[in-house]
Every structure is written in C-alpha cells, then in structure tokens.
Design goal:
Endonuclease III, domain 1; about 325 residues; 2 domains; DNA-binding; mainly alpha; Arc Repressor Mutant, subunit A; globular; three-stranded antiparallel β-sheet; 15 helices
DNA sequence: AAACCGTGGCT
DNA sequence: TAGCCAAGGTT
C-alpha cells in the first residue's frame, strides 16, 4: 500500500484530532450527494451505460464484470449484445459459440450460467428481466451483488449494492480502515445500508457513484485522494492512513501448476479448434497425465467440455 | 464455510 | 504468474 500523495500540506494540523473509533457515528450527510455530483462529471463512458441499453444488457454486463476488469469486458460485451441482443437469442445459441465469444474473460462457467440464466428469464419471466431482487437471485449465476446491481442499474430501483469497490470506499471513508475485512461482514452490510438514500432514483445514483469512486479514485493499491470529492470526510485519511489491520490475509493461491492453469489450457485449445480435438492432441497440453485427466473430467462434469468419438479416435469438443 | 474457479495488467 | 487485484458465485 503506497501512501497516497497529498497536496502540500502539514501532516496533521488541518485535520484536528478526529476520533476514529470503529463504527464511529454517522458519516457526514454530504457523502452521498457529493459522490453523486462527482459521478455526474466523471463517469466513464462504458457501453453498458449507453442510453439505449436494455435490462438484459445490464445483466449480461454484471455477469461479465464478476472478477473481470471493465476495460477487458467492454469489447466483448459490445460484440455479444450485437450477436445476441435478447435472452431468447442467447438461449438458442450453440453453447460452443457462447464459450468462444466469451473468449478470455476468465471463469468460463460464468458463460455457461449466463446462457442458463437467459433460458430461465425466458421460461420463468417471459423474456423480461425481473425487477424483484428475490427473483433475480434465483437466476443462475446471479448472487446478492448482481441482483442488487440489476435492480439499481437496469430498473433504477432501490437496493444495497455492495461490491468490492463500495466495500473499500465505506471501509475507508466511514470506518477509517485501509481495506475491508477479507470476507463480507454483517457490520459492513449495516453500514452500507445506512448510506442508501430512501428514494429509488437517489439510491441507484449512489450505487453507481460509489462503485465508480472505488474503481477509479479510491483504488486498492494507489488511491488518488487528491482527486477524491470526499477526501475531507474520509476517516482513513483523517487518521493518517493507518495500514491494513487484517494482517493475516490469505495468500493468493498461485497459478503455475494448478488445476486452473490446466483447465485454462484445455479450454483455450478447444476454443481455437474448429472441430473436435483428438485426445492425442489434448495430451500434449500438459505433462502430468494424471492431473490432465482429472481436469478434463472436471470440465466434463461442469458441462464445459464433451467427450466424442468413443471408439477409435476419442476427442474433446465444446458442448453443442 | 473455506476452497475453488481464469486471465491479464499493474506494482 | 512474484504478489496483488479485478462490478462474485457456487459448493
């Protein structure tokens, strides 16, 4: 964590002893309106924010954005929506083409669930994306965040949108901490809920604005506090940028040699292949035959891969 | 409920 | 691909 660069300013004097207890009192009333006003001027021009976007397009974007940066999603989303504008279109598409269009967004099971979601929207809701959070959550690949986001961004409704960006903003501005806890807590939900304006339109605006603030200003690594519209309200800044108190964060899982790397290689090869890929060719993808076998079995179980040619020349292909 | 699930950019 | 991080969800 690099301490943010501040404008020339004495270390403390302009911020006299602000008490920074955990879950200290209510945040300044200015927080929401100022953040919303900042967003109106600084919002990125992302394709799923275009005026002619559809609720389905918003849902598609939210699924693509799960753990994938917006810059990487944008071009894929645009082509995707041209090709399959409605849930009915996506539901009827060959799954192999869906997986190829997903490309390198990562976590291809999301693509599978998105297609299942499209079919569920058609079957359960006559092709109309529901505005009810419970109905949304019941859709494949839609969890608490995505359901709340669709309520806000697709329907302009009131919801508590608590993604990694909002969690970080709230942890800093309200909680005075460098980072939120490793996993979401009830206290965070309470704090976030308390910030959501009563009127639906204001709530939706706050959701978009707070996420954007976390994404482009209040970032995890090098926050740009000099550009922050609420820096003077921020308890983390007032406290002198104390370090992360969650010292025992889990170390990242690593990559080289993991099943995820193997699965990624297999999927990559299958996306590039025009037809079925012979197992002899699959075997060349990874030196450890046992691990490879296990990973292929897993991909088949997940519905991402199919076995074909059971006799002489067995092969793998993307599901039809 | 801790683990698993891809990929690429940034520090 | 060192380590971290990204508009999480599922089991």
């Amino acid at each position: 964590m690099r301490v943010p660069t501040e404008p020339p300013e004495p270390p403390v004097p302009s911020c006299p002893a602000v008490p920074v207890a955990d879950d200290a009192g209510a945040p300044a009333a200015d927080l929401v309106p100022r953040t919303v006003a900042w967003f109106a001027e600084h919002r990125r021009d992302l394709p799923w924010r275009a005026p002619d976007r559809t609720p389905w397009g918003v849902l598609v974007s939210e699924v693509m954005l799960q753990q994938t940066p917006a810059a990487r999603v944008a071009p894929v989303w645009t082509r995707w929506m041209e090709r399959w504008p409605s849930p009915r279109d996506l539901g009827q598409a060959p799954t192999a083409e869906v997986l190829r269009a997903w490309g390198r967004l990562g976590y291809p099971r999301r693509a599978l669930r998105l297609q299942e979601c499209a079919r569920a929207v058609v079957d359960r809701h006559r092709g109309v994306v529901p505005g009810d959070e419970g109905a949304l959550r019941a859709l494949p690949g839609v969890g608490s965040y995505t359901a709340a986001a669709v309520v806000a961004f697709a329907h302009g409704g009131r919801s508590v949108v608590l993604d990694t960006n909002v969690r970080r903003v709230v942890a800093r501005v309200v909680g005075g901490h460098a980072l939120p806890p490793p996993s979401q807590t009830a206290a965070e939900v309470r704090q976030a809920t308390a910030l959501v304006p009563a009127a639906a339109a204001d709530a939706a605006a706050w959701a978009a604005a707070s996420m954007e603030l976390g994404a482009v200003v209040c970032t995890a690594r090098s926050p740009r506090c000099t550009d922050c519209p609420v820096a003077d309200l921020c308890r983390w800044r007032a406290a002198g940028y104390p370090g992360d108190q969650h010292a025992d964060r889990r170390r990242s899982q690593g990559w080289v040699g993991t099943d995820r790397q193997v699965r990624g290689r297999v999927m990559h090869a299958l996306r590039d292949a025009t037809g079925p890929l012979p197992l002899t060719a699959v075997a060349d993808l990874w030196p450890d035959a046992g691990q490879l076998q296990r990973c292929v079995d897993g991909l088949v179980a997940d519905g991402l891969v199919q076995r074909v040619g059971a006799g002489e020349d067995p092969a793998l292909r993307l599901p039809g």
